[in-house]
Amino acid sequence: MAVQTFRLPDPGEGLVEADIVTWRVAIGDKININDILLEVETSKSVVELPSPFAGTVTGLLVNEGDTVEVGTPIITIDDDVTVNVDAGDGSDSAAEEAPAGESRVPNLVGYGVRTTQAKRRPRKPEPTDGAAAEAHDSVAAAFSTGAPVSRRADQREPLTPSPANVSTPSGGSVAPLPRPGPATKGPVLSSGGTLAKPPVRKLAKDLGVDLGSVSGTGTGGVITREDVERAAAREGAEPAPATAAAVSTAEAALPSAEPAATETRVPIKGVRKATAQAMVESAFTAPHVSVTTTCDMSATMALIERLRQRREFRDIKVSPLLVVAKAVLLALGRNPELNSAWDEVAGEMVIKHSVNLGIAAATPRGLIVPNIKGAESLTLDQLAQAINSVVATAREGKTQPAEMSGGTFTITNIGIFGIDAGTPILNPGESGILCIGQIARRPWVVGSGEGERIEPRWLATLTLSFDHRLADGEQGSTYLADVAGILTDPGLAMLY
Amino acid sequence: MTVLTMAKALNAGLRRALEADAKVVIAGEDVGKLGGVFRVTEGLQKDFGDHRVIDSPLAESGIVGTAIGMALRGYRPVCEIQFDGFVYPAFDQIVSQVARLHFRSLGQLKVPLVIRIPFGGGIGAVEHHSESPEAYFCHTAGLKVVACSNPVDAYWMIQQAVASDDPIIFFEPKRRYHEKSEVDESATPVALHSARIVRSGSDLTLIGYGPTVRTCLDAAEAAAQEGRDLEVIDLRSLSPLDTSVVLESAQRTGRVVTVHEAPVNVSLGAELAARITEQCFYSLEAPVLRVGGFDTPYPPSRVEDEYLPDLDRVLDMVDRSLAY
Amino acid sequence: MSDASGVSTEVELVQLLTPEGERVGHPQYSFDGDDDQIRDWYRDMVLTRRIDTEATALQRQGELGLWASCLGQEAAQIGSGRALQKQDFVFPTYREHGVAWCCGVDPIHLLALYRGVNLGAWDSAATHFHIYTIVIGAQTLHATGYAMGVERDGLVGTGDPDRDVAVVGYFGDGATSQGDVNEAFIFASSYNAPIVFFCQNNQWAISEPIERQSRIPLYRRASGFGFPGVRVDGNDVLAVQAVTTAALERARSGNGPSFIEAYTYRMGAHTTSDDPTKYRLADELEHWRLKDPIQRVRAYLSRTGAGQDDFFGAVDAEAADYAADLRRRCLTLPEPHLLDLFDHVYAEQTPDLAEEKGRYAEYLESFDDSIPEAVEGHPQAEPAYGGIA
């Protein structure tokens, strides 16, 4: 003897609720299966509901006039026979309750759509052996090195297949039709290429890291972002544009040669590789012309002393490089061809309105040229701070790729090595580079006429290389003369 | 070895099929006495009789629907839909019945039916004769879809399709019907649902099928002169896709360009792009790029050469891929 | 008077047993059996109706998602079904539960379809009763093609009526408007296929009356396609059997297709989701109730003494028992598992589908069903709501 509950079902008229119209049975009535229990009214019509149970009515759970949702218990019936509806043949669901809060919206042709599922089903914890880590595992499986090489890669199938040894049937019988054949599903092999997702590949390109030399720590040997950054730091992060104006004395230590060896081989990678690439590109693209002048920097040196006394520069290191930079910037304003670029594809000379001033810095990793964006609009103290900052950052190896790109003009200081002049190579994409040599005490002719004499002065040699496509000898020379003029007489800056 | 056009190769393959299995029948408009508007079934009714090579009334749904009935009775019908643009009246029978009977019956009923459809453009035709509707059928579970690109494949694939116990939509590139090749009728064919590398390369993979395989090969030739080494894959089987060949190539070259006449939107190229990106993500140097018809209905024939992917459009996309 | 096509409006209706249960003659057709057969067919119809009623109730109790009732059409289905030879083949729509009965299809399979356990999975090869086709009229082309195949098997017109095969394609009045049905007529006619087109004109296609489908009586359509058509009283099991036997003979012997319009009435709704009170009048139902197919046979048997109370009582009892057992079997139908269905898409499985199945299996495995809350949201745990708690 079990009490069964009948819930309001969907009688198939697209209803989610119904009004109880008339009970056709009363408590205590003995009923058979399919006897009509009640009438319900949907939004469309009146429907009679037959009983799924036989037995005695023990409870009418809703009243006539009530509006009841589908799934609501409406009647209890004590079936005098134990109706065994469970899994004799393996059926599960017939005996389970309809989950509360989850119902199907009925429609014309079936049960209707389920309306709610607001909670996630709990998942098993991921096994530690990683077997269930789907995304990673599918990658790992895809790139497993234990997989045999697919025959497809090596098959160079001509459109006409080569004759095979097929015995032709004798007599008049025809060979059976060729079957479609097995579906070719081999494991996807690892072909030895590098594995890295697109953003990581781009990072590697930007940092000049050769992915082939990086070992990946990701699942399946995939090279991660961190792997690339580590490789860049280890080998020397390198900017795409780099100048070879200065000989880098601070290169990574060479591997020690064996005593009996006649040569030592250093792999070309990292900074050196990118530098080489950039130099080749620049040298063989832009026609380089160099012009040189020697100028008397004494007034500049005096200016520097005065600047150091000033309040604005109390905490800022002031060096000759600052004044040279300022002179460079001022002169570019008057000679914009030296701050331009050659756009072969568009057939245009691109004159930049702003100066992104590159400062070549020798660092333990090698030569790095960060640039100061919009340097022409900085005040002198801002410029000083910017120069100090980029150089310090470069020495720490923390220069970001963005800081190394977009330069328009570069200054390189070889004077720190005790050298006077050089033939600097342009940063690719730039039209001029100024090389300043050591500022040293040297004899100089001063005065005129009767007062003409030789005095020790602060002298420095300035060398300008420029792209002869963008500027002629006159323009280059004029520019260099302007720079030298300001350095000789800083007061001339007033004219700019 | 015989030199055959694709149309003649299909004819020979169908003849072989009719000879090998008495249950094979051919049905379609004008396939009997006329031998088909492209002569693919020429001579077959004369030799096998009109009970096996059946001239049909002008009713595509009827052709496919009755073919289903014959298949249920144990026959292996090969229907011809005269032109790609005329398959649509049969679409319901194909997707609601052909594709589903095996599944509906829990595997008890088989529909070993082949529906041959000349497809693609480039023949100067009027409207509805240059369509590429393959995506609709690839998208339908329960169907298999193949496309031959050359006479050798045509000869073998049609036989294999007939021998398959599954329903096969068999696309034939009509503008290649008259291209010739040597066909060795004693060779062992490649599996039907295999893709094939028809030109090995290392810089980039071109994937085409049907009429665009030739286009891809031509593009690869031109690219070789520019110092680029392109690999060309003939997909052959559109559903199921032979991902093993495609993915191996994508991994190796790291760059893929798909080429078909159908518009790229929601196309086979789109499906290939999704799969290759998912499976080869860590090997890709560039996103998978797609070349196809524009997203307009097929244009009038005077401008169809502009619409259809050609060597320049393919190489333009190759350039884009290599620029990454 | 002439109809729209200019033909005389006198409509034939072959009848051999009146609604009152009286045997009448017909110049062309006759019932050649005996009272044993009539008693058998009475039982067939009662059981068919009882099964149909039970299925309707089960749907109202939430055990079936849907049911398409054949109430009122028992004679059309038993009469034609019992005319079949065992070698014949049937292509039904989705309402031929009486014909399924005649072909030996266990009704539990029909319930399984409407319950959503499968899409129609009885053994059609063994029972010669094709699985139900939901798309209206599509099966008429399959039937025609099947008939074309039969012909190619050499099983038409051999002169051996126990060997020659005929095919019956069932469809309703609404279906005659579908292109596929008309194409089937064309193909059958063009190829002289051994097929009987059996149309149960139950007057309604959901809410569209026959007048919306056709301006002329449906049986007259056949002549337009080049084969004979006949209208039979669809509620007269004797007439239906006679007419169908003749049509099958015609097909079997190689004389090609014919069209039978069984003029009957859909006493129930189109399906359990339909509300016919919206579009038809109660007095129409009453009109047809007077023509009930089972009542007239019972009247005949009673009046002639061929059937007594004990016979009727026994049939009713058998029907009740059968229905109760069917109910029990319905409630214990096993639940389908989606994973199993991946294997049935193709005769030759594809690697991608096998892989997809594998991934889905892993996904299912990833849920921790030891936690009670997991069961609630489990699609497999969801029963029909309402009903048995």
Keywords:
heterotrimer, A: 496 residues, alpha+beta, four-stranded antiparallel beta sheet, 10 helices, elongated, B: 324 residues, alpha/beta, Rossmann fold, seven-stranded mixed beta sheet, five-stranded mixed beta sheet, 14 strands, globular
SSE blueprint and pairings:
The complex is a heterotrimer of chains A (496), B (324) and C (389).
Chain A (H helix, E strand, L loop, with lengths): L1 E6 L9 E7 L6 E2 L4 E6 L4 E5 L4 E6 L6 E3 L3 E7 L24 E4 L2 E5 L19 H9 L8 H4 L43 H10 L17 H11 L34 H14 L4 E9 L1 H12 L10 H15 L5 E4 L4 E4 L5 E3 L1 E3 L2 E3 L2 E2 L7 H17 L4 H4 L4 E5 L18 E5 L3 E7 L6 E15 L5 H16 L8
Parallel strand pairs in A: 14-18, 18-19
Antiparallel strand pairs in A: 1-8, 2-4, 2-7, 3-6, 4-5, 6-8, 9-10, 11-21, 12-13, 14-17, 15-16, 19-21, 20-21
Helix pairs in contact in A: 3-4, 7-8, 7-10
Chain B lengths: L1 E4 H15 L3 E5 L15 H5 L4 E3 L4 H13 L3 E5 L10 H8 L2 H4 L9 E6 L14 H5 L5 E4 L3 H13 L4 E6 L6 E4 L12 E4 L4 E5 L3 H14 L4 E5 L2 E3 L3 H11 L2 E8 L4 H13 L8 E5 L10 H4 L3 H12 L2
Chain C lengths: L34 H26 L13 H8 L7 E3 L5 H6 L4 H9 L8 H4 L10 H15 L14 E6 L6 H13 L3 E7 L2 E2 L2 E2 H4 L7 H5 L3 E5 L3 H16 L5 E6 L18 H8 L3 H12 L4 H23 L6 H4 L9 H15 L6 H6 L9 E2 L1
Parallel strand pairs in C: 1-2, 2-3, 3-7, 6-7
Antiparallel strand pairs in C: 4-5
Concise account of the structure shown:
With about 500 residues, chain A is α+β, with helices and mostly antiparallel strands.
Explain what this protein looks like in three dimensions.
The complex is a heterotrimer of chains A (496), B (324) and C (389). With 496 residues, chain A is an alpha+beta fold. Chain A contains ten helices and 21 strands. In chain A, helix 7 packs across helix 10. The longest helix of chain A is centred in the last third of the chain and has 17 residues, at 380-396. Chain A is elongated and about 140 Å long. By secondary structure, chain B is of the alpha/beta class. Chain B has two domains: 2-183, Rossmann fold (3-Layer(aba) Sandwich), CATH 3.40.50; 196-322, Rossmann fold (3-Layer(aba) Sandwich), CATH 3.40.50. In chain B, the strands form three sheets. A seven-stranded mixed beta sheet of chain B has the order 3-2-4-5-7-6-12, with helices on both faces. With 389 residues, chain C is of the alpha/beta class. In chain C, helix 1 (35-60) packs antiparallel against helix 12 (293-304) and helix 6 (138-152) runs parallel beside helix 7. Chain C starts with 34 loop residues before the first helix and ends with a strand. The chains are: A alpha+beta (496), B alpha/beta (324), C alpha/beta (389). Chains in contact: A-B, A-C, B-C. The interface between A and C is large, with 62 and 53 residues. Strand 1 of chain A pairs antiparallel with strand 8 of chain C.
